[in-house]
Amino acid sequence: MGMDVGGRGGVKSDINVTPLVDVVLVLLIIFMVVTPMLQKGKDVQLPVTSNPDKKPSDEKNEVLVSVTVERQLYIEHTFMDEESFLAAMGETYARSPGKTIIIKGDKRLSFGDVKDVMLLVNKAGFTNIAVMADAEQSG
Length: 139
Description:
Nucleotidyltransferase, domain 5; 139 residues; single chain; alpha/beta
């Protein structure tokens, strides 16, 4: 009926929660740091479509080109002006002409701005060009 003051050196059956909380907090911090790094290309606001293409992508055979609202061109995360962009695309085409170019254009751009980037990519020799969009949220 009373408390055990600990006069005997027996085994305690209480669960020590502190190590579990430490591990969970470390995992949470790791996921918070790593998650933004998983996004490919420059961060832009993608246009929304109600009928997205659900074809699985082959990331090894794709090059991601981002176009920001300021009309800045990025290959993956590297900023390029128009001349260096065309030179880099030409070099990529010379190494592997079968790659697919994914254009990730900001939704605030006009279609003409994205079309100009498509023409630059086509001028470098690529014919497999796709445009990235977000799926419309139903509900």
